[in-house]
Specification:
single chain; alpha/beta; TIM Barrel; eight-stranded parallel barrel; 11 strands; 13% strand
């Protein structure tokens, strides 16, 4: 299926696997790429050296195009951009709107720039800076999320910009792809659906918790880092919501120290990143400190398999997913279903005209 997204990135199908921290590593990204979709490597939880190693590992597993997701406000964002350029990565995506300077640097090197946004005004901003496409995530999506549903946000953005728009938030099958195309999107991005594949390195016990979840078990909370965060409701989430502010801040300090050791970042660099995050989202210093909870609580579940000690970011679609296909199987059946639906719609339209 050819769309503006496939022409732009060189992939066979208009499907994107999102850059999920601790989840979207070389194995999942290469499996996605080999299946014909666009895999996005998550780099925010990696050191710069580890990012280069991960990119080379993906390249050793596939010849297909793939991308790297960056935190635009990180103090070492420039170093990560250089890795992308030097290693010949096809696509750079961003969890937050990148600066005009980063967009220009990437485009000058021939890298396709696809930021993720959650509001029409942000899409208009990055389009004005020269972004090649945009992923727009509605409130159904997992992780940090907004309040506007995809079915309302998507047409707003499609009407506002003249670059390809990829829909995210609430997609898991061929029906969703056809619906997004009908809205004017050039494809769909899926996180939870790719997390729940046999190619994902997420521990089996964690996958089982996702598969057992109903739609009502997916909630939005501010208890983790002070921002709206969609995840599975667990006893830990309930406990975080009940804990007082002092307890939460002390926990955040411990998690910040742990993440510093894992990431190799110095305290001054972490403080600079925190200052950039604060200005980028208009946060209080307490909220910046709480943000240290996110990577460590996600690591506990997504890497260590501790569903009792970690949080599980999740889109609402977790409540309707009940299997673990390979990436190849997932992509194949999504595209087959989409083709069947489009054929049926075309046939129905022809019969009505007749």
């Amino acid at each position: 299926m050819e769309t503006a997204l496939t022409r732009l990135t060189g992939v066979r199908y208009p499907l994107v696997q999102t850059g999920m921290g601790w989840v979207a590593g070389p194995r999942l990204v290469s499996a996605t790429a080999n299946a014909g979709a666009l895999g996005i490597l998550a780099s925010a939880t990696m050191t710069v050296d580890r990012l280069r190693e991960a990119v080379r590992e993906v390249k050793s597993r596939t010849d297909a195009p793939f991308g790297v997701n960056l935190r635009a406000d990180a103090s070492d964002a420039g170093d990560r951009v250089r890795v992308i350029v030097e290693e010949g990565v096809k696509v750079a995506s961003f969890a937050l709107a990148p600066s005009a300077e980063l967009v220009a640097e990437l485009k000058a090197a021939g890298v396709v720039v696809i930021p993720t946004v959650g509001a029409r005004r942000h899409a208009e901003k990055v389009a004005g800076w020269g972004a090649d496409a945009v992923i727009v995530q509605g409130g159904e999506g997992g992780g940090h999320t907004g309040e506007v549903a995809t079915t309302v946000l998507l047409p707003q953005v499609v009407d506002a910009v003249r670059i390809p728009v990829v829909a995210a938030g609430g997609f898991f099958d061929g029906r969703g792809l056809v619906a997004a195309l009908a809205y004017g999107a050039a494809g769909v991005a899926m996180g939870t659906r790719f997390l729940l594949t046999s190619d994902s390195t997420v521990p089996d016990a964690v996958k089982a918790r996702y598969l057992a979840a109903t739609v009502r078990d997916v909630t939005v909370t501010r208890a983790v880092d002070g921002l709206p965060h969609r995840m599975l409701r667990t006893e830990l989430v309930d406990s975080l919501e009940r804990s007082g502010r002092t307890t939460a801040l002390l926990r955040a300090v411990r998690h910040a120290a742990a993440f510093r050791r894992l990431s190799g970042l110095s305290w001054p660099r972490m403080l600079r990143d925190g200052r950039a995050l604060r200005h980028g989202k208009d946060l209080t210093w307490s909220q910046v400190l709480l943000a240290a909870n996110t990577p460590m609580l996600l690591r506990a579940s997504m890497v260590e398999g501790r569903t009792d000690l970690g949080v599980m970011a999740s889109g609402q679609v977790a409540g309707v997913i009940d299997d673990l296909p390979s990436c190849a199987e997932l992509v194949d059946r999504t595209m087959t279903e989409a083709a069947q639906i489009m054929g049926a719609l075309s046939a129905g339209s022809a019969s009505m005209r007749g």
